[in-house]
Automatic annotation (TrEMBL):
Name assigned to this protein: Oxidoreductase
Pfam families assigned: GFO_IDH_MocA
Any GO MF annotation of the entry: nucleotide binding
Organism domain of life: Bacteria
Classification via InterPro entries: Gfo/Idh/MocA-like_OxRdtase_N, Gfo/Idh/MocA_Oxidoreductases, NAD(P)-bd_dom_sf
Record domain Gfo/Idh/MocA-like oxidoreductase N-terminal: where: 9-102
Length: 312
């Protein structure tokens, strides 16, 4: 599919903070790549009109039937029904993570198009830190790994009450197991799927939420063990991976974009000013042109979801 000079018809289902980010990035990349867009949006309420949107609808059934791309950026609990409807209306889908909130339905029920490109967001895997990490792993044998993603939910979304967010509500697909699925997404990309997983989760902090605010995993591979800690209540934001090898302990700091070799005292600064969200949108547009391999298709995303739900 040739994109340069083409006017793409795009629909966003959901225009919250992440939907608006993808919309602005898409417009920005369109200017760089000489692609024009006609932007439609399906919104849940008659909120303030977004200047970049050409046409708004208040149900998917009112939207058009001939989109090039649909962005699925509404609450996770609505993703299955949204994809089921929009796959009839759009050639390709960009789906915000996580794929679904549960594993009660099968991908086969979605009637996906044979030639459709279905990408599930994985910005962490499109960061420069992750690129350098993969280069390191090509040269190191890892005996054990430990990942942590810890942050304070009330600080996530400025000028909004965390108690009303989907993250706080179990019925909307909130909870660290699903909300912080990035960790298992990148770990399975790096190491494959484990043979066995033990996990414990629950709501333990004083946050006013009914979703899980802590989940801890131990995963067994044939040649290593991996530990994962996910929480909503850490007051100091941390997103790190520790790799234990024969000669060193390698600490990967995704927040500060640095990699430390703790034994030899070496530090690699991986900050190259690139935006992972821009990078992954570029990757998606490249896929539409027939370039590259889908980094996170629905099959992989669904398998990760099943794993964090205890189905191996």
């Amino acid at each position: 599919m040739r994109l340069k000079g083409y006017k793409m018809k795009v629909c966003f289902v959901g225009l919250g903070s992440i939907g608006l980010r993808h919309l602005r990035n898409l417009i920005s990349l369109g200017k760089e790549r000489e692609i024009q867009f006609e932007i439609h949006a399906v919104r849940s309420s008659k909120a303030e009109r977004v200047e970049l949107v050409d046409k708004e609808f208040y149900s998917m059934q009112e939207s058009d039937l001939d989109y090039d791309i649909a962005f699925i950026t509404n609450p996770t609990s609505l993703h299955f029904e949204t994809i089921q409807e929009m796959v009839k209306r759009s050639k390709h889908l960009f789906i915000e993570k996580p794929l679904f909130s549960n594993c009660n339905r099968s991908l086969s029920e979605l009637s996906l198009r044979e030639n459709g490109i279905y990408y599930v967001a994985s910005p962490l895997r499109n960061s420069n830190t992750y690129r350098v990490l993969k280069e390191i792993l090509a040269q190191e044998r890892v005996f054990s790994a430990r990942a942590i993603c810890s942050s304070y939910l009330p600080d996530w979304r400025q000028n909004s009450d965390y108690r009303t967010s989907y993250s706080a509500k179990k019925e909307l697909g909130g909870g660290v197991r699903i909300d912080l699925i990035h960790e298992w997404d990148y770990l399975t990309d790096l190491f494959g799927f484990p043979l066995e997983v033990m996990s414990f989760q629950g709501t333990f902090s004083n946050l006013e939420i009914d979703s899980e605010d802590l989940s801890v995993y131990i995963a067994k591979y044939s040649d290593k063990l991996i530990e994962v800690h996910l929480d909503y209540f850490g007051r100091k934001t941390k997103r790190e991976l520790e790799l234990f090898t024969a000669d060193d302990t390698v600490q990967v700091d995704f927040v500060n974009q640095k990699i430390f070799y703790l034994n030899r005292g070496k530090t690699i600064d991986t900050n190259n000013a690139s935006d992972p969200y821009i990078n992954e949108l570029n990757h998606f547009l490249n896929l539409l042109q027939g370039n590259g391999k889908n980094k996170n298709d629905m099959g992989h995303a669904y398998k990760v979801l099943k794993m964090v739900k205890g189905i191996l």
